[in-house]
Amino acid sequence: MYLPMVLEFAHIGIPYCYRCDFDCTDGCRNCGQQYASELEGAIEGAQGEVAAFIFEPVSGATLGAVTPPPGYLQSIAEISRRYGLLLIADEVMTGMGRTGRNFAVEHWQVAPDIIVTAKGLSSGYAPLGAVIASKKVVDAIASGSGSFLHGFTYNAHPVSVAVGQAVLHRVQSLRLARAADSEIAGTVGSALKVALNELCELDAVGDVRGLGLLWGVEFVRDKKTKQPFPPEKTFAGLVGQAALRRGLLVYPMQGCADGVAGDHVLITPPAVITTDQIAWAVDQLRAAVMESAQT
């Protein structure tokens, strides 16, 4: 019933190198540019009616921590600037240190015009989200009407904001963003990366991907062809249930291959996790995958 109120807008392909639409023999450098060219095509096809491009630097639940190929984010940032578009980064899941940086875009030296963030901003203790705008956006509003009319029931709620302030203090004082960095030896982020990649030896594991403390494990029926399990098997759900029986919580999802088929789990531990807890968790996940593959 809300359809008449919704303005349809163009969508473009998401770089997904495990199941790439293009030639990935060059380490995905070329396909990153081909995916970026889809943005330019969509802009031109809209005949000047595009205001902004919204993207996730690293995919969340739907694809399971897919990271962009080299050069992709830099190219979409350049295209957005060239056409005068606002570049909006959805960092609700990836922001606040989750990937080993304050915001995931920092890994690729990209500065969006607007960042939206939540989740880790309050560490789940209270509902809290934020919109962070660049000086260019703020100045445009200030030199225009001078006012920004908006409002939500819990806007600037004092308890939620106090929680956010306390969480940010802990993140900074404990250097939790650095702890999450999977590229620094000795961090829990690095330990998780190493441990999860050992799951690649399992027949049912097709891909392990991610960054920092945001990782996805994709399951396949056939490793050579990357054929997914039949959707009706709900393989990711079986893994999730088997893991839960062992005391481990993961985030099972389906549809990553084509919107219907394709199973993966998302792994997103807190930055205060220990290396011993990581080893235990990955052992439980391994056992859950093996159990599910036998059903």
Task: Give a written overview of the molecule.
By secondary structure, the protein is of the alpha/beta class. The chain has two domains: 172 residues, Type I PLP-dependent aspartate aminotransferase-like (Major domain) (Aspartate Aminotransferase, domain 2, 3-Layer(aba) Sandwich), CATH 3.40.640.10; 115 residues, Aspartate Aminotransferase, domain 1 (Alpha-Beta Complex), CATH 3.90.1150. A hairpin with an 8-residue loop joins strand 7 and strand 8. The N and C termini lie far apart (42 Å). 41% of the residues are buried. The mean pLDDT is 93.
Summed up:
Strands 1-2-3-4 form a 4-stranded mixed beta sheet.
SSE layout and pairings?
Elements: H1 29-45, E1 52-55, H2 72-83, E2 86-91, E3 114-117, E4 130-133, H3 135-142, H4 158-173, H5 176-180, H6 188-197, E5 205-211, E6 214-219, H7 235-245, E7 251-254, E8 263-267, H8 275-293
Parallel strand pairs: 1-2, 2-3
Antiparallel strand pairs: 3-4, 5-6, 6-8, 7-8
Helix pairs in contact: 1-2, 6-8, 7-8
